[in-house]
Write a structure and sequence with these properties.
The protein contains 13 helices and 15 strands. By secondary structure, it is an alpha/beta fold. The chain is globular, with a radius of gyration of 21 Å. The protein binds pyridoxal-5'-phosphate.
């Protein structure tokens, strides 16, 4: 079976973890400092703060940037944590629809949801594609909104030639095992602002501003030095892993073009995706069968697939309860038609060739 992810660590990463384990320095320490510096250098950010995971990264950024009661625009087509961490912070997530081709937040829909209480926007760089950063920055400036970027899936993505981690105000990452950079559990927030960075560092350790002096309510969101050491070592092969993802995506696009009823992923102008996922959309009428039948046919041919996401955030029971009902037709349609194909760094030309052949066989009954 061609899998959806490769979560094996390389030897230097295992060595780095062992070195820290042998040293007995398990908690957040020098390795976390080193990872923060190397990461900030890599993405071109002024500051970077490590934390426990991508959800914690969002929580720290939301708490540092926004005030309780603020309404925050965000796409419904994302992972649950984009919204749930806003609720944890006392914010009001205002769920917006997305573009049917890029799957990214639809600014026209967001504009319709502005109220006098809207204070921010959380664009999600979904599946490794970059949101149109320039359009979002002008939208935010026009409506006096602060931005927190959810880049959990997009380590290594660029917009107009610039790494997305270098844009203000906060950019949040996850290092969960399926992500572009992975350490186990881990997260990072980059920012250009020393005040924001300092506040997130306090919040990360229970709002402690001096030993046993707590001046704000925070959490224990520290990363361990073992994970940071893996992260530092893995940064060394990040470019190679990203190049492989980009090659795989290009091969998939060339090989799958023109199949009836299969919409291939599209990036906004200026985006250079890091291809965390390669998600296609199935037009049931044109293909003759739906997304789930395609997934089944691919499984039978030895190709794993995944559905990100089978529900919009606005369709989650607890969100309905806390935020109320909203109708987002594009998101709802995508939840029924989208399918992710394997694209990760652990696959090469031969495996991607097999994926392409399997999709052709599944859709038109024979290979390309
Ligand atoms: C878009 C998005 N935001 C936030 C997160 C949360 O990251 P973590 O799982 O590391 O807490 C994820 C993880 O899947 C994600 O995909």
């Amino acid at each position: 079976m061609i899998p959806m992810a490769d979560t094996t660590l390389a030897e230097p990463e295992i060595e780095a973890a062992l070195r820290v384990l042998r040293s007995g320095q398990l908690r957040q320490g020098a390795e976390c400092d080193r990872f923060e510096k190397a990461f900030a250098d890599r993405v071109g950010a002024r500051h970077a703060v490590t934390c426990a995971n991508g959800s914690a990264a969002l929580h720290l950024a939301y708490a540092a940037v926004f005030e309780p009661g603020d309404e925050i625009l965000m796409p419904s087509f994302s992972f649950f944590a984009t919204a749930s961490m806003a609720l944890q912070t006392g914010l009001v997530p205002v769920l917006c629809d997305v573009d049917p081709r890029t799957y990214l937040i639809d600014l026209d829909d967001a504009a319709r949801r502005l109220t006098p209480r809207t204070r921010g926007i959380v664009p999600v760089h979904l599946f490794g594609a970059s949101c149109p950063v320039d359009a979002i920055e002008s939208f935010a400036a026009q409506h006096d909104l602060r931005i927190v970027w959810d880049a959990a899936q997009s380590m290594g993505t660029r917009f107009n030639g610039r790494d997305i981690g270098s844009f203000g105000s906060c950019v949040c990452y996850s290092f969960y095992p399926t992500k572009n950079l992975f350490v186990g559990e881990g997260g990072m927030v980059t920012s250009p602002d020393p005040e924001l960075d300092r506040k997130m560092r306090y919040l990360r350790t229970h709002g402690q501003t001096a030993k046993y002096v707590h001046t704000m309510i925070g959490w224990n969101y520290r990363m361990t030095d073992v994970e940071a050491a893996i992260g530092c070592a893995q940064l060394e092969r990040l470019e190679t892993m990203l190049a492989q993802r980009r090659e795989n995506a290009a091969q998939l696009t060339a090989g799958l073009k023109g199949l009836p009823g299969l919409q291939l992923p599209t990036e906004p102008a200026g985006s250079e995706s890091s291809w965390h996922q390669y998600s296609v959309v199935v037009d049931e009428h044109e293909m003759g069968f739906g997304r789930d039948a395609l997934a089944e046919r691919l499984t039978k041919r030895g190709v794993a697939t995944a559905v990100h996401y089978p529900r919009g955030i606005h369709q989650q029971p607890v969100i309905r309860e806390q935020v109320g009902e909203v109708s987002l037709p594009v998101t709802e349609r995508l939840t029924e038609t989208i399918l992710a194909l394997p694209v990760h760094h652990g696959l090469g030309e031969a495996e991607i060739g097999l994926v392409i052949r399997a999709v052709h066989e599944a859709v038109v009954g024979h290979g390309p």
